[in-house]
Write a structure and sequence with these properties.
By secondary structure, the protein is an alpha+beta fold. The chain folds into three domains: about 5-50, Ubiquitin-associated (UBA) domain (Helicase, Ruva Protein, domain 3, Orthogonal Bundle); about 55-110 and about 155-195, Elongation factor Ts, dimerisation domain (Tetrahydropterin Synthase, Chain A), CATH 3.30.479.20; about 115-155, GTP Cyclohydrolase I, Chain A, domain 1, CATH 1.10.286. It contains eight helices and five strands; from the N terminus they run αααββααααββαβ. It has helices at about 5-15, 20-25, 30-50, 80-85, 85-105, 115-130, 135-155, 170-180, and strands spanning about 55-65, 70-80, 160, 165-170, 185-195. The strands form two sheets. A three-stranded antiparallel sheet has the order 1-2-5. It has a two-stranded antiparallel sheet with strand order 3-4. Strand 3 (about 160) and strand 4 form a beta hairpin. Helix 1 crosses helix 2 and helix 1 packs across helix 3. It is globular and about 65 Å long.
Length: about 200
């Protein structure tokens, strides 16, 4: 029998339903960490299934950094006005805006990066390796690895979340989907820095 205090504690931490929390705790033999990990994995699977649903509601959230020199606006969408008005949804928008203020991503995702930017990066990486005597196949793999790293540096959804580096922003949104039970989409963002064009 699982202690109701454990169920309440894990439910508070994850936002999952009582039945799911109880099942995860029973599955893990009362191990909170294992149960939480199990819930996170299941939540991401559920989030994937919800990603096709229309997200026509939401908010435009603004954040101004304490020094008044950096500002961010984020358009975060969900399925219903009810979820858009919840504290959890606003907190998610705030966390994303805070991350953008700190990390200054240039693009939303890989699809938003212009092809000429990627071509230029590949040229730079190829020039760096000129004269290395590595086989062409190996050089190609190294270049693609560097391009993947470039995406994690400049694409918001691929960046590690500043509040929890074990997750990317994309995963943070998926956890929001699992917790709130609706499709959530980050549509666009803009970051202003005083004195920068």
């Amino acid at each position: 029998m699982i202690d109701t205090k454990l169920i309440a504690q894990l439910r508070e931490k994850t936002g999952a339903g009582i039945v799911d929390v109880k099942a995860a705790l029973e599955e893990s033999g009362g191990d909170m960490a294992a149960a939480e990990e199990s819930l996170r994995k299941k939540g991401i699977l559920k989030a994937g299934k919800k990603s096709d649903r229309v997200a026509g509601e939401g908010i435009v959230y603004s954040y101004i950094h304490g020094n008044q020199k950096v500002g961010v606006m984020v358009e975060l969408r969900c399925e219903t006005d009810f979820v858009a008005r919840t504290e959890g949804f606003t907190q998610l928008a705030h966390d994303i805006a805070l991350h953008i203020a700190a990390m200054n991503p240039l693009y939303l995702d890989e699809a938003a990066v212009p092809q000429e930017v990627i071509d230029k990066e590949r040229e730079i990486y190829k020039a760096e390796m000129a004269g290395s005597n590595k086989p062409e196949e190996i050089m190609g793999k190294i270049i693609e690895g560097k391009v993947a790293k470039f995406y994690t540096d400049v694409c918001l959804l691929k960046q590690q979340f500043i509040k929890d580096e074990s997750m990317t922003i994309e995963e943070v949104i998926k956890h929001g989907i699992a917790k709130m039970g609706e499709n959530i989409q980050l549509k666009r963002f803009v970051r202003f820095h005083l004195g920068q064009d």
